[in-house]
Design a protein that fits this description.
252 residues; alpha/beta; Spore Coat Polysaccharide Biosynthesis Protein SpsA, Chain A
């Protein structure tokens, strides 16, 4: 694709009980930096859907709760169907600083990266003073180090929920076969590396408050084990010992 041609940017929001934070999230997005916002609601029992429609968003809903990863699958499916060249995942809980979206999409539009992540951790002091729980900070540092060593990357953080993809990443990776839980994110990173896409990240300040989504200590522990399992599958596939279906191409 000609990088000088205007590319269609679609923001997707995997939503669950986002009624209280959705309006502020949308208001923080700079005017003119996107073509459409798609919100996929995962069976919220509050007024998330009504609020999203009032704000003029394109809304899709699940009949049953699909989980964090399952919700993303429909987000990306609909973004591709709508013709998105660059797809931004922004949580509707107003935790990530949406004002930075144009800077992140610029890296992808210019072809510098195929996949950008927002790094929540610039310094330990900043992360902890910003409200990141200590157990989450420590596990994040350890798992990011392991991911970087195994995948040959140099990411500041491998677990951010703010992501920007070029459509070719989502067209290549069979994300519909990925996990429906939080490990979906780590699987996508590992798959992108396997298929040779260029990853990058930049600082992304975040806010921790009661309405912002957060993973529990128990779920964090399960998430960590699943990341290690995904990395093991990556190693076995790369070394041609045992190929995992996780690393097939979309239409294989």
């Amino acid at each position: 694709m000609d990088t000088h041609q205007k590319q269609k940017i679609i923001i997707v929001m995997p939503a669950y009980h986002a009624e209280k934070t959705l309006q502020d999230t949308v208001a923080a997005i700079p005017d003119g930096c996107y073509d459409e916002i798609i919100l996929v609601d995962d069976c919220s029992t509050d007024n998330t859907v009504a609020k999203a429609k009032d704000l003029g968003l394109t809304v899709f809903t699940h009949d049953i709760n699909k989980g964090y990863g399952g919700n993303q699958k429909l987000c990306y499916q609909e973004a591709l169907k709508a013709g998105g060249d660059v797809v931004v995942m922004l949580h509707p809980d107003n935790q990530y600083d949406a004002q930075l979206i144009p800077y992140f999409t610029g890296f992808v539009e210019k072809g510098v990266c195929d996949f950008m992540l927002g790094a929540r951790i610039r310094t330990r002091k900043e992360a902890l003073q910003g409200g990141m729980p200590l157990y989450k900070y420590l596990s994040n540092r350890m798992l990011t180090l392991i991911m970087n060593v195994v995948l040959g990357q140099n990411l500041a953080e491998g677990h951010s929920g703010f992501r920007v993809y070029h459509r070719r990443v989502l067209e290549t990776i069979p994300f519909h076969d990925n996990a429906d839980d939080f490990s979906f994110d780590a699987e996508l990173i590992t798959q992108a590396v396997y298929h040779g896409f260029k990853l990058g990240d930049a600082p992304m300040p975040v806010r921790y408050f009661s309405e912002a989504s957060s993973i529990s200590f128990k779920d964090s522990s399960i998430y960590g084990l699943k990341i290690l399992s995904t990395l093991a599958k990556y190693i076995l596939t790369k070394w041609k010992i045992k190929k995992s279906p996780l690393f097939k191409k979309h239409n294989d």
